[in-house]
Amino acid sequence: MSLAIRCEGLGKAYRHFAHPRDRIVQLLWPAAHRYHDVWVLRDISFSVEPGESVAILGGNGAGKSTILRLVAGITAPTRGAVSVYGRLTAMLELGMGFHAEFTGEQNVQMTAQLYGLRPAEIRALLPRIRDFSELGNQFFEPLRTYSSGMNVRLAFSLATVVRPDVLIIDEALSVGDQNFQQKSLARIRELQDGGTSLLFVSHDAGLVPRVCKRALILEHGSLRYDGSAEGAVAEYALLAASSSRDAPG
Amino acid sequence: MVKSLWDYRSFVWGGIRRDLQLRYFGSVLGIAWLVIQPAGLIAVYFLIFTAVFPNRTLGNIGNYGAFLCAGLIPWLMFSEIIQRGHTCFLENAALIRHSSFPRILLPLMTTLSAMLNFSILLALYLVVLAFTGQRLSLHLVALVPLILLLGGLAFSATVGLALVNVYARDISQAVPFGLQLLFWLTPIVYPQSAMPPSLLRFLDWNPLSGVIDGMQRAVVWNQWPDWQRLAYPTLFLALALLLSRTVYRRVAPTLADEL
């Protein structure tokens, strides 16, 4: 069986240092152990097949974004291993690391270069990205003049203009106006039909069954549920209800 | 590292161009500043050391203008790499948090950009020198390995400083002073003969002394570098690269967590 993503026993701890000085000691002398670990993910295992789409549900601080960052290779896991097969594109924290002083066009060029596209390919893609993002002449203005919706539109258009084997999207699908959301969902379906595996996080539980058949639920850094999207939404609703009942006030 | 540079060549080249664009964005003279700034600095040192101070310090070095350019332009390259490079991870935090490219590309881009700019600048000054009557010779080819050596020293220092700077911003506070100290401990605006013998060993400890001396020999005196004196900076470079590589390997995989 071929795979698109494979996570085995994934764990992630962020190091917490009591004092900046301890960081330097730790850097120069790894055996010093001048920190304590804050575990945000524990023993997460799952695989995603080519063309399969998986949503990740969970409350704030459950570790959803951390999983996406590990799969995208932004940071290394503390335990376990993650493998991605094929070309990966990631849209994290509602963006692609755009630079505020560069224009939309320059940012697209920079990111496309980072993804290894040749100059001639990038030139051919620029008008398509500009059209899809509906930015018009704003495309040639610096990013600092963009609204957050425009920012997401540009990032999404760039991330999906070339079909990746694995597409990672953090929240971006529920931002932006209705019209663009419809358009992005249509584009996502095109990519799925082409064989792209999608791994995404959304706070909009209603969106999940529309985009994928399978979903994971994370609770306090552990995998609580891995199954059908409908089942996940129901389970997540129960979980949210019980945690709000437990919460004081 | 060589492979990652090749895979990301269009990103690196694009980054060098964007760096220039961003730096002179909104200035009237634009890219001309690349020449004006060092020219102004050279003029200042030239005036101070030929007009304000008597020739006591200069001794018999001949063409002081040629001497000054031969040392000062490479120094400006070195100092720019460190000045601009030691914050490269902090400045590109957004990019690091969004993409999984090899982090080493960021200091590499700064280094290559400065090496390119100052090599062009050095060539320009050599043309000017030739017109003012300075005799130039084939010994100038020694400048190529010397610039690479100097760029390598700056690169390895920058990688180490930039990584530590992510953990402790003290580096940003220390760098300007450190560069000043290093500048005056390198025979750039004064000849080595002007240094009192008791202080001479500081020049010997400084790996830049031998490199700058080699450049001055090639431009001013039409001589080959003192190869033996270059053994120390070369060894220093090897150790510095090894050390910065060790720190890089330890820190780079989770660098995004710290930003």
What does this structure look like?
- The complex is a heterodimer of chains A (249) and B (259).
- Chain A has eight helices and nine strands.
- In chain A, a hairpin with a 2-residue loop joins strand 8 and strand 9.
- With 249 residues, chain A is an alpha/beta fold.
- In chain A, helix 4 (119-133) packs across helix 5.
- Chain A has helices at residues 20-28, 64-71, 104-114, 119-133, 148-161, 178-193, 208-211, 229-246; strands at 5-17, 35-48, 53-58, 79-84, 88-91, 166-170, 197-201, 214-219, 222-228.
- Chain A has one domain: 3-Layer(aba) Sandwich (Rossmann fold), CATH 3.40.50.
- The two termini of chain B are 23 Å apart.
- Chain B has one domain (37-258).
- Chain B has 13 helices and no strands.
- Chain B has helices at residues 2-7, 9-23, 33-52, 64-85, 88-91, 93-98, 105-131, 143-167, 170-184, 200-205, 207-220, 227-251, 255-258.
- The model of chain B has no long low-confidence stretch (mean pLDDT 87).
- Chain B is mainly α.
- The longest helix of chain B is centred in the middle third of the chain and has 27 residues, at 105-131.
- The A-B interface holds A 14-15, 20-21, 23-24, 27, 30, 69, 72-76, 90, 92-93, 95-99, 101-102, 106, 109-111, 113-114, 116-119 and B 7-8, 10-11, 14-15, 18, 22, 25, 94-101, 163-164, 167-168, 247, 250-251, 253-257.
Question: Which tags fit this structure?
Answer:
heterodimer, A: 249 residues, alpha/beta, Rossmann fold, 6-stranded mixed beta sheet, 8 helices, 9 strands, 27% strand, globular, B: 259 residues, mainly alpha, 73% helix
Quick overview of this protein structure:
The complex is a heterodimer of chains A (249) and B (259). Chain A has 249 residues and is α/β, with parallel strands linked by helices. Chain A has helices at residues 20-28, 64-71, 104-114, 119-133, 148-161, 178-193, 208-211, 229-246; strands spanning 5-17, 35-48, 53-58, 79-84, 88-91, 166-170, 197-201, 214-219, 222-228.
